[in-house]
From TrEMBL:
The lineage of its organism: Bacteria, Bacillati, Actinomycetota, Actinomycetes, Micromonosporales. This is DUF429 domain-containing protein. InterPro entries: DUF429. It comes from Micromonospora zhanjiangensis. Pfam families: DUF429.
Length: 251
């Protein structure tokens, strides 16, 4: 099995991509690159079993409805609790599930800078669909939405602070911690890049998260949640430890 992890930024710069091959008892990082274009992501997706995309795959349903209503001058605040109404505008169903499961609050695709990456992500999804991929925003097809911070939390690793300025030492320590927790993961010549670039590191985590989704070791939407998740997207939160990835399914 091959998985592709993409840490998607709004532009090519700061976008990273990792390809991981899953073999009996071990996983090998076969490629790791930064400053990646959409065309290169699409080309790489042709050769893998699952793509883990670190980017919201949609917007909150209520937010989309608000924009449409506002365009026609017909906005109505249905909830007397303004704070609760704004929260429902800002966060998707899957964001709330991640919050409940981990205590981590994902960035709001409707009200934070992550929206710029999501604009690009929408175009990338269209390109992947045009290339013949099954783009199911619930994660049942070729592409699955991942969230490295939540995956790191699930796996008992540091999940915040390593992207801040001046945190290079802590970031390098996180790579060491990953290698200790997953001795079966072979970074090889890409170890240095992982330590220098948190974008590269996140793309590796995205590829590991894609593996969790591919072998049924990630949270899936219930039948009731699926209708909304098909539109808003669904974060494939890992359900167990890192060891699940290497022992969770036959090769």
């Amino acid at each position: 099995m091959l998985t592709l992890g993409v840490d998607l930024a709004a532009v090519d710069k700061r976008t990273a991509m990792a390809v991981v091959e899953w073999l009996p008892g071990r996983a090998v990082v076969r490629d790791l690159v930064v400053d990646v274009s959409d065309a290169r992501i699409v080309a790489a997706s042709e050769h893998v079993d699952k793509v883990g995309l670190d980017c919201p795959l949609g917007w909150p349903e209520l937010f989309v409805a608000l924009v449409q209503a506002h365009r026609g001058g017909n906005v109505a605040v249905a909830d007397s609790d303004g704070a609760r109404w704004r929260r429902r505008l800002a966060y998707r169903l899957t964001d709330e599930v991640v919050r409940e499961e981990t205590g981590i609050i994902p960035l709001s695709v409707a009200a934070d800078r992550i929206a710029h990456a999501a604009f690009r992500g929408a175009g990338l999804l269209a390109m992947l669909a045009a290339a013949g991929h099954d783009v199911d925003r619930c994660g049942g097809g070729s592409v699955v939405e991942v969230y490295p911070a939540a995956a790191l939390y699930r796996w008992g690793l540091v999940y915040r602070g390593y992207k801040s300025r001046g945190q290079h030492v802590q970031h390098a320590e996180l790579v060491t911690a990953l290698r200790e927790a997953a001795a079966w993961l072979e970074l090889g010549a890409f170890d240095g890049l992982c330590r220098r670039s948190h974008d590269a590191f996140d793309s590796v985590i995205a590829a590991l998260n894609a593996r969790a989704a591919a072998i049924g070791k990630a949270v899936r939407p219930s039948d009731e949640q699926r209708t909304v998740a098909r539109v808003e997207g669904w974060i494939a939160l890992p359900t167990g430890p890192l060891s699940d990835l290497i022992h969770g399914a036959d090769e």
